[in-house]
Amino acid sequence: MKWLKIFIILLVATASLFILWKFILPLFKSPNSFLKITTPTVESTVYLDSKQVGKTPYIGEKLPSGDYNLQFNARLPDPFNKKVSFSTLVTLTSRTLTAVNYEFGPSEQFSSGDIRTFRSGEGLSIITNPNGADVWLDGELIGKSPLSSNAGLGVHKLKISAWGFITRELEINIENGYRLVVEVYLAQNPFGEVKQTEEGKLDLYDLSTSQESLLTKPSLWAEGIFFFEESVKIEFDALIDTGGKTHFKSESAWEEKIAKGNQVVVGYLGNEKDKGLTPDAKKTLAVLKKQLVTTKKVAIKQVQILSTPTGSLNVRSGPGTSYDITAKVHPGEKYELLEEKPDWYKIKLSSGSGWISSQYAKRL
Fold first, then answer.
1. 217 CB-contact burial (10 Å; exposed 0-12 / middle 13-18 / buried 19+)
2. E strand or H helix at 48
3. pLDDT tens per residue across span 312-330
């Protein structure tokens, strides 16, 4: 009986502690924490502990301090048109601002951001993804992440860099009585050395790399190229990988360029060890070049002016007799047809355009 009483007492004590931790203590959390979330490239929906709380840019005021599961979802516009999301654990500290700034790429591999939180203590802690990145504080290299620093109070310039990733720079503010914890996410750089190897109707650029994380996932690599192409000031229409697969930024835009005989820009997602295009990539390139050579010009629709009672035909500013007369055309003349409406044709003139009655014109 004695041991049974002890067991019951321990059981009741354990249950009481659980209830205290789970239900009572949260009621005494300080409601003076602040959370700011920005996703500069797209609008995102924000969730805290699976509850939707708003959209970015989001500012949460008077939030209870403690740990939260943070998630935000977004949809990237064309040419990607895909859902993207990010989730992490954040700690809100009483009377401080936790700031999250995240820039969505087409995948986590090409996304970047930073999270700034405050903990009890003093100084600065840096955590990065990837680990081992170089940490620069106020222009001085202070080591590799993760690391801690006894940086002084006030505003500092922080720079995080790593080979194969895009450098991230930010301003931080270390406050009295708190340790600032900065988590930095670097986006992988999809570009190495960019070399133009062919020029003409089809411009070809060699984008070969030695990074296995890119070579093993050419579809994701292609998305990264299209997403960051402004950094190299080249607009790619298509990319060819080592297996000969073509990755189009927009297949419809490609077909339109081919139909019009316009110049196209192609990149090669190769392995530096190959020293040039693989046989499969060369076959695909030959097919793309053939498309340019065999493209037929788009037929231009035309109309011819027929005989009229007055010897000329009025051109009006709109499809109706109530519109102003802007010019006159004559029987036998041919013009490019731009648009059709019931009983009216819109034609291209030497300067501008206008509408004529279809009664006195025929399509060619």
1. middle
2. strand 45-48
3. 999 999 999 999 999 999 9
Strands (E) across 262-312 are located at 264-269, 302-305
Which sign, positive or negative, has the C-alpha torsion 322, 323, 329, 333?
negative
Model pTM above 0.90: no
pLDDT, position 14: 67
Distance (Å, rounded) from C-alpha 116 to C-alpha 101? 9
Give per-residue pLDDT as tens, 34-72. Answer: 999 999 989 999 999 999 999 999 999 989 999 999 999
The beta strands (E) that lie in 94-191 are given as 97-103, 112-120, 123-129, 134-137, 140-144, 147-149, 154-161, 168-174, 178-185
The DSSP result for 167-182, as a single string, is: -EEEEEEE-TTEEEEE
Which tokens hold the place of 89? 């654990």
Q: Which residue has the higher pLDDT, 45 or 11?
A: 45
**Order of strands across the sheet with 82-92?**
51-55, 45-48, 66-76, 82-92
For 357, left (φ over 0), alpha (ψ -120 to 50), or beta? Answer: beta
DSSP 321: T
Selection from 231, 228, 225, 250 nearest residue 103 by Cα: 228
